[in-house]
Amino acid sequence: MGYSFTSSARVVGALLQRGTFRRVEDSSLILRRIEFLGSNLLVPSRYEMGYVCKTRNIWTTTPVCMGRRAAKIANRKGAQNAKKMKRNGKIGKEIVSAIKRGGPNPDSNTALAIVLEKAKQLDVPKEIVDRNLNKALEKGQEAYIEKIYEVYGFGGVSMVVDVTTDKITRSVQAIRQVIKESGAKMADSGSAMFKFRRARVVNVKLTDVDKDKLLAIALDSGAEDVIEPTIDDDDPEEDTSGSYYKVVCSSDEYSIILSKLREEGIDFEPDNGYELLPLVTIEVDDEAMDMNKELVAKLLDLDDVDAVYTDQNE
């Protein structure tokens, strides 16, 4: 007899918080605590769960709280991994476009030389670079075009979808389909974009740098702002390994900040040319937040989509 871990955890969590158990008709689920190892629910206890004719032992702590923390960590790490994949994909598209417009020789094709140097700085895997160098020479492969689509999300949130595609019709159809299925709405050009500003951004992991040291470097280098990650002060055990400071600057100061960070031995993740930052962030309820995050995830699943920017306060 099998149990879904998620559903079992919910049942156990609900029953533990009420401090009781339930026994109903034969062939129905029962739960009985047979050993208690601590004075509160943060300490594991052993329970017996199963049907009247069958039982099995399970161990449990506080599944509801742990589940929320785990989901938060997974969301952050998943978002960073997705961002790297999309950034690498964008570099690949730029390689193809540069070759289509100026040929495969970086000595005579300045645009290709620049994008190859950027790929090196961003630590784009060699296999991705080589694959796109070959792809550009395939018969029928077209150059990529950059497009922006604007979306009204949920709870008053606006989104900007950054696209690089070799088939405009394909990309717009795919995006419209995702928007329609989610219940969101496409916005007219300019309806959402004015809520954002374009800036160069250096991402520095929270756990890799002392805050005061980073602020000093940013100030000395002429940065415009340092955006701190949102941390739950009520949760001292929160995993911050997926949290980043955003050092915001102009194009003129960007290389200076990168050099300063390298001199200090501080790891960082550069942007892919720019990021869109909201001028004002919007607070939404949990339901709208989850719906917006799901929509963003589905949009990022599309190969033509490089990034999705929102003004939702995370």
UniProtKB/TrEMBL annotation:
UniProt GO cellular component terms: cytoplasm
InterPro entries given in the database record: Integrase-like_N (IPR017856), TACO1_YebC-like_2nd/3rd_dom (IPR048300), TACO1_YebC_N (IPR049083), Transcrip_reg_TACO1-like (IPR002876), Transcrip_reg_TACO1-like_dom3 (IPR026564), YebC-like (IPR029072)
Domain TACO1/YebC-like N-terminal, residue spans = 68-137
> Pfam families from the entry?
TACO1_YebC_N (PF20772), Transcrip_reg (PF01709)
Where, if anywhere, are coiled coils annotated?
none
Residue ranges occupied by any TACO1/YebC-like second and third domain in the UniProt entry: 144-311
Q: Which Gene3D superfamilies match?
A: 1.10.10.200, 3.30.70.980
Similarity comment: Belongs to the TACO1 family.
HAMAP family in alphabetical order: Transcrip_reg_TACO1
Enumerate the PANTHER family for this protein: TRANSLATIONAL ACTIVATOR OF CYTOCHROME C OXIDASE 1 (PTHR12532:SF0)
Name the chain's protein. Transcriptional regulatory protein
Q: Which species is the source of this protein?
A: Zostera marina (Eelgrass)
